[in-house]
Write a structure and sequence with these properties.
It is a single chain. With 714 residues, this protein is mainly beta. It contains two helices and 41 strands. The strands form four sheets. It has a 24-stranded antiparallel β-barrel.
C-alpha cells in the first residue's frame, strides 16, 4: 500500500510541475489596422514580429523551408494578427473559401490563444490564402477540439507575388479571460500542403496533439482591454413553409432571441428564447449493422458554445472505450427525438466559463410537448491542478429516454503531463458515476480507469470500465450496460524519411467485454502490420481483425433478416488508401472482406473530391455492404454528393444530397448563407425528401426556411 501511495504522489508532483516557455511583449496601438488582407498599414511597423518558426514535420526542430512573419498588436477592443507567408505562388494550395469551413487540405495558419494561461484550454483561429477563416475551442490540451463553435471575428487574406498575406481582428468580446492576468499563452502553426510541411512557434513537441496548448509561448503586456458591458443580444426572425405530398402546405412565421451576458471576463451567461436550429447542417446518413446505438455529432451552435466545459471522464479522441462509449451528458438528447426530428425548445439557460482555477458549465433546457420529462439540467465543475491535471464532478437531472425521472452524479480525476521522461505525454484518468432512476434499484454504478501514453514513436493505451445493469444516463449516451470492458492499443511508428516514406506504423489493439457474471459478450483483437504515411501525404494501411460476438437474443440486423442467438466468431481483412488532399482531385477507399456471423461480408467505401475551380467544389462518396448469410443475402448502400459554390468567404451555397437503401429515401439540403458581417446573417435553407417508387424518386416532403439573424453588442 505504501508503494502505491508513493507512486501516486510522484505522479502528482510530475503532473503538477510548471515549465517556462518563450515570451514576447506585444504593444498597444491607438491606430488600428484596416482588415483587408494586406499587412501594409503603418501601425504594423510598431508590432511585435515572430519569425522563428521551426518544423514539426518532416525535419523536427529545423527552420521551416519558407519564411513566415507574424505581426501582433492590440488596442482596447481587439487583438490583431498580421500574417506573411512566403512561398512560390504556384505552390499555394487553397480550395476552401467559406467562413467556418474545415481547412485540413489547404495552406493555413493557426493562431491558438490560451487566454487563461492555464496550458490546457484555448481558442483556435485559422485562415487560408483565399480568406476562409475558421475557429474552434480546445480543451484537455488539444485532446478535444470543438470545431463547430463560431466566434465573431474578422479575417481576410490576399495572394501576392511573394506568397500570401492575411489579417485577423479578434474582439475581446468574443473571448473569455481573467482580467487580472496580463499574460496569455500563444501557439501558432503553419502548414504548407504541397510539401506536407508543418511548422510552429514555439517549437512543438512532436509527441503532443496538433493544438498542444501546453507548448504555447507567452505574450505579455495585455492591459487596459475591454469587453464593453459584456452584453450581446441576437434576435432572429424566421419564415417558411412545410409541405407533404397530398397535403396542404403549412406556413411558418416565428422569432426568438439569444442573449449573452459576460458576468465577468471569464464567466458568460446565455438565455435562448424560442430556440431555433433551422440553419443546422443535415446529419450524415448511416446504416447500423451492429446491435448498439450510433452516436451522432452535435452541430447546433447553442450547445457547441462552451461544450468543452462539459466533457467528462474518457471523452476524447482514441481514449473512449470501443464498445462502451459513455457520455453522462449528450446534448443531442435535448431538442431531437429518437427519429432525429427536431423537438421545439421553449427556452434554454446556460452558464459557462472559468473563475480562477475552477471550470464551470451549467445548462437548463425546457422543451415543448406533452406533460412529462420536459426539463433537463446539467452541472459540470472541475478544478485545475498544476499544468494539465484536474479533478471534477458532473450532475444531470432529466430523462429523454423514457417517462421515469432520472438523476446522475459523477466524479473524475485526470492526472496528465507533457513532460514525462523529458518530452513525453502521459496521463492517468479515473471516473465514477452513480445514477438514480424511478423504476430501478441497485446495479446503477459505472466506473473506469485509463492509462494513456500517446506519443509519436510509441502510442500505448490501457483501459478498464464497468457499467452496471441498471445504470441510466437520462440525458447521456450509454450504448451498453451490464458490462465489464478491458481495452487497449499499442502502435509503434518510427519515422523512416527514406524511399518517399515519412512514417511507418505497426501494432495492435484489443477489446474484451463480459457481463457481471463474467460471461464473454464480445471481444476483438486486431493486428496492424502496415501503416505507411508517405512524404506526399498519401497513406496505406492494412489490418487483420478477429471478432467474437455472443448473441443472447435473436438479432434483427437489417430489414427482415434475423441472426439466431448463439456464439459467433470470424476474421476480416481491412485495407485503406487515401490520397493527399493537396491535390485538386483527391479521395480514398476502404475495403473489408471476411466472414460475418453465419456468412461473409464485403464492404467498400469510396470518397472522391474535386476542386473544379476556386468557386466550385464537388465531392461524393459511396458506401456498400454486401452481406451473404445463411438466413439470406442483402446489400446496403449509402450515396452522398456535395456541390458547393463559394462566391466569397461570406457568400456561399452548399448542396448536400444523400440516399440510403435502408429507408429507401433520398434527402437534399440546400443552404445559402450571406454573412453581412460576423453575427448578422441571411440564411435560406431548403430541405426536401424523396421516396423511391417504380424505380424513380418522387418528392414526398419539403421544408423551406428563411432566417434573418442580427447581433447587437454593448
Amino acid at each position: 500500500m505504501k508503494t502505491i501511495l508513493s507512486i501516486f504522489f510522484i505522479f502528482i508532483f510530475i503532473f503538477a510541475h510548471e515549465y517556462c516557455l518563450s515570451q514576447v511583449v506585444i504593444p498597444k496601438t491607438s491606430d488600428s489596422p484596416l482588415i483587408d488582407g494586406r499587412v501594409n498599414d503603418k501601425c504594423w511597423e510598431s508590432a511585435s514580429v515572430i519569425t522563428d518558426f521551426l518544423q514539426r514535420e518532416p525535419n523536427e526542430g529545423q527552420p521551416m523551408t519558407e519564411r513566415t512573419e507574424i505581426f501582433i498588436l492590440y488596442d482596447a477592443n481587439n487583438i490583431y494578427f498580421g500574417i506573411k507567408c512566403y512561398q512560390p505562388v504556384e505552390s499555394i494550395t487553397a480550395k476552401e473559401m467559406q467562413r467556418g469551413a474545415s481547412l485540413p487540405f489547404d495552406d493555413r495558419v493557426h493562431i491558438v490563444l490560451d487566454t487563461y494561461h492555464d496550458g490546457r484550454n484555448a481558442y483556435i483561429f485559422e485562415v487560408n490564402p483565399l480568406g476562409a477563416v475558421g475557429d474552434a475551442l480546445i480543451s484537455q490540451n488539444g485532446r478535444q477540439v470543438n470545431s463547430s463553435w463560431e466566434g465573431l471575428f474578422v479575417g481576410k487574406s490576399k495572394i501576392t507575388d511573394q506568397g500570401w498575406e492575411a489579417e485577423l481582428a479578434i474582439p475581446f468580446k468574443t473571448l473569455t479571460f481573467d482580467r487580472n492576468i496580463n499574460s496569455w499563452g500563444l501557439f501558432m502553426n503553419r502548414m504548407i500542403e504541397s510539401k506536407q510541411e508543418w511548422g510552429s512557434w514555439p517549437v512543438a513537441n512532436i509527441n503532443m496533439p496538433e493544438y498542444a496548448v501546453s507548448d504555447a509561448g507567452i505574450i505579455t503586456g495585455i492591459e487596459g482591454i475591454t469587453q464593453g458591458i459584456g452584453l450581446d443580444i441576437a434576435p432572429y426572425a424566421l419564415t417558411g413553409m412545410d409541405s407533404k405530398r397530398g397535403e396542404s402546405a403549412k406556413y411558418k412565421l416565428n422569432g426568438g432571441t439569444d442573449i449573452y451576458y459576460q458576468i465577468t471576463p471569464g464567466l458568460k451567461a446565455s438565455l435562448s428564447v424560442n430556440t431555433d436550429f433551422a440553419e443546422t447542417e443535415a446529419d450524415t446518413r448511416q446504416i447500423n449493422l451492429t446491435r448498439f446505438s450510433i452516436r451522432l455529432a452535435e452541430k447546433r451552435n447553442f450547445f457547441l458554445d462552451g461544450a468543452n466545459l462539459f466533457t467528462f471522464g474518457f471523452e476524447g479522441f482514441r481514449t473512449e472505450a470501443p464498445s462502451g462509449k459513455l457520455n453522462p451528458f449528450f446534448s443531442r438528447r435535448i431538442g431531437i427525438d429518437s427519429d432525429g426530428l427536431s423537438v421545439p425548445i421553449n427556452y434554454g439557460v446556460k452558464l459557462v466559463g472559468r473563475v480562477n482555477n475552477w471550470n464551470i458549465g451549467m445548462i437548463h433546457m425546457n422543451e415543448k410537448g406533452d406533460p412529462g420529462n420536459l426539463n433537463f439540467s446539467v452541472g459540470r465543475i472541475s478544478y485545475n491542478i498544476g499544468q494539465l491535471s484536474s479533478i471534477g464532478m458532473i450532475s444531470t437531472f432529466g430523462n429523454a429516454i423514457n417517462e421515469f425521472q432520472n438523476r446522475l452524479v459523477g466524479l473524475d480525476l485526470n492526472l496528465a503531463t507533457s513532460r514525462f521522461m523529458g518530452n513525453k505525454t502521459a496521463s492517468i484518468m479515473m471516473h465514477g458515476i452513480k445514477s438514480k432512476t424511478e423504476n430501478k434499484n441497485g446495479k446503477d454504478v459505472s466506473w473506469g480507469v485509463l492509462l494513456n501514453y500517446p506519443n509519436d514513436l510509441i502510442n500505448l493505451l490501457l483501459g478498464y470500465q464497468e457499467i452496471g445493469e441498471n445504470f441510466v444516463a437520462g440525458i447521456g449516451f450509454v450504448p451498453r450496460t451490464n458490462i465489464k470492458e478491458s481495452w487497449g492499443h499499442l502502435t509503434i511508428g518510427p519515422r523512416i524519411n527514406a524511399f518517399g516514406i515519412r512514417q511507418y506504423s505497426f501494432g495492435g489493439s484489443f477489446d474484451y467485454v463480459t457481463n457481471f457474471a463474467n460471461v464473454m459478450q464480445s471481444k476483438s483483437f486486431s493486428i496492424n502490420p502496415v501503416g505507411i504515411r508517405f512524404n506526399s501525404g498519401d497513406m496505406i494501411t492494412y489490418n487483420l481483425e478477429y471478432v467474437y460476438e455472443f448473441l443472447e437474443n435473436d438479432f434483427n440486423i437489417y430489414s427482415d433478416y434475423i441472426i439466431p442467438a448463439k456464439e459467433y466468431s470470424w476474421w476480416e481483412n481491412q485495407f485503406s488508401l487515401s490520397t493527399a488532399g493537396s491535390r485538386d482531385l483527391y479521395g480514398g477507399v476502404n475495403y473489408t472482406i471476411g466472414k460475418f456471423y453465419t456468412g461473409d461480408k464485403n464492404s467498400v467505401s469510396l470518397r472522391l473530391n474535386w476542386k473544379v475551380s476556386v468557386p466550385l467544389f464537388v465531392g461524393g462518396s459511396v458506401s456498400r455492404n454486401k452481406i451473404n448469410l445463411h438466413e439470406g443475402s442483402f446489400t446496403t448502400d449509402i450515396f452522398q454528393f456535395n456541390a458547393n459554390f463559394l462566391f466569397s468567404p461570406n457568400i456561399t451555397l452548399y448542396n448536400y444530397l444523400q440516399y440510403d437503401s435502408q429507408s429507401n429515401t433520398a434527402g437534399l439540403q440546400t443552404r445559402f448563407r450571406w454573412i453581412i458581417k460576423p453575427g448578422d446573417e441571411i440564411i435560406l435553407v431548403w430541405n426536401s425528401g424523396y421516396s423511391k417508387s417504380d424505380k424513380r424518386f418522387i418528392m414526398s416532403e419539403n421544408a423551406v426556411r428563411l432566417k434573418l439573424k442580427y447581433n447587437i453588442r454593448f
